[in-house]
Amino acid sequence: MPLTDLAIRQAKPLDKSYHMPDGGSLFLEVTPAGGKRWLFRYRFAGKPGKLALGKYPAVTLAEAREKAAQARRQLDEGLNPGHEKKVAKATAKTAAANAFEIIAREWHAKELPRWSEDHAARVLESLEADAFSALGRIPVADLAAPLILETVRKIEKRGAVDTAGRVLQRISAIMRYAIQTGRAEYNPAADLSGALRAAKVEHRPAMPRSELPEFYRRLEAEPLLFPTRIAMHLLILTFVRPGELRAARWDEFNIERAEWRIPAERMKMRAPHLVPLSRQALALLEELRPLTGRSALLFPAQTDHDKPMSENTLSYALGRMGYKGTATPHGFRALASTVLNEEGFDPDVIERQLAHAERNKVRAAYHRAEYLEERRRMMQWWADFLEVQRGEVSNR
Distance (Å, rounded) from C-alpha 246 to C-alpha 308? Predict the structure, then answer.
């Protein structure tokens, strides 16, 4: 006779374990200690097998029957229920190990050496407050764009629009790390660019980071004057405004300190600006000095060495390379900002290096000397990142 809940509850332990059949190879085992668990007996490839389906009452009679029915379906399909259970358990264990929160904390630990203590704390606090509750337990391979969008829009709805954008950038960086370490194959956060209501509008076209290897391939193939080619490389490496680069003077550069100090009168915001120079930037200056070092300007015009190169020189070069309407010299600032934010650099450090306006005069004066060591590390990371993109060209 099939079992009933009453019969199960009334089953008493004996000196030895015994089985109460329910039919269809499903049994309830009662142990001498009074424990009760479900078992399903079967044969596969001529060999007997036993599948544990869980303990009663955590697994009810109805649930045990459904699990037994599932095992019978697996047998009908030529599958071993015991093996399938082990596979499912291993898959669940892997999924738990690859949950978003675990990967996020691993990513955070990896980034610690290049972050300040304060910034590292802010990053983790923002994820704990606004991402882990909704996404933390989900395996990174299962995360989808709609769920991520729902998560950051909740932040946006409470008025924290900047925080929403930063959390989205951090989620995207975590997903890229998951891809790099083989835990995911796709970054759904990358599809949400511009999805937030208050996202910044980019008025000057900028290429995506994925285009950089192709850009460098085209730059290498384009027949440019050598100073123009160096100017293009320096513009990307330093992400200053094109006008600031065109009018750069040799006496603004301190090679020993690896610094370029742009005076206030040449800056859009009329405040002096310091650009830490990467090893790659210094190497370019060394190549350029024999060509233009006798001039006061790094990039003098061809017809009049007392004037800087034309403001159209780099724009026309990009156009000839096939980027007319899709990228501008000024757009490299947006590209650098996007990549550095996505990679988890402190937004305040990025904004300081971009020389964006600071409305509070006291804060602005403080910022001129702030974050210098972090900016040095960030600029060298950016140069190394670009070098990798250039390397992808030669490896094709």
Answer: 6
Catalytic residue among 9, 55, 324, 356: 356
The total of structural domains in the chain comes to 3
Residue 201 lies in a domain: no
Q: Are residues 213 and 348 in the same domain?
A: yes
CATH of the domain at 288: 1.10.443.10
Structural domain contains residue 298: yes
pLDDT for 243-270, tens place per residue? Answer: 999 999 999 999 999 999 999 888 876 7
8 A C-beta contact, residue 336 and residue 235? no
Q: Which of 92, 57, 53 is nearest to 71 (CA)?
A: 53
At residue 184, φ and ψ (nearest 5 deg) are -150, 160
- Which domain, by its residues, includes 73? 5-92
- Please, are residues 312 and 320 in contact by the beta-carbon 8 Å criterion? no
Say which CATH number the domain at 166 has: 1.10.150.130
Is 366 part of the annotated catalytic residue set? yes
pLDDT surpassing 90 at residue 18: yes
Provide CB contacts within 8 A for 338, sequence distance 6+: 206, 209
Q: Compute the average pLDDT of residues 87-97.
A: 69
> Of 50, 75, 92, which marks where a domain is finished?
92
pLDDT one-digit tens code per residue, 335-373: 999 999 989 898 889 989 998 755 444 444 545 556 889
Catalytic-residue membership of 241: yes
Helix, strand, coil percentages, rounded to 5, for the chain: 55, 10, 30
Whether 231 and 321 share a structural domain: yes
| 18: amino acid identity, one letter | Y
Give me the catalytic one of 333, 352, 375, 377: 333
Is 108 a residue of the active site?
Answer: no
Structure tokens at 344: 């988890």
Looking at the structure, tell me whether residues 300 and 356 fall in a common domain.
Answer: yes
Active-site annotation holds for 356: yes
pTM, whole model, 2 decimals?
A: 0.55
CA distance 102 to 104: 5
Active site residue 333: yes
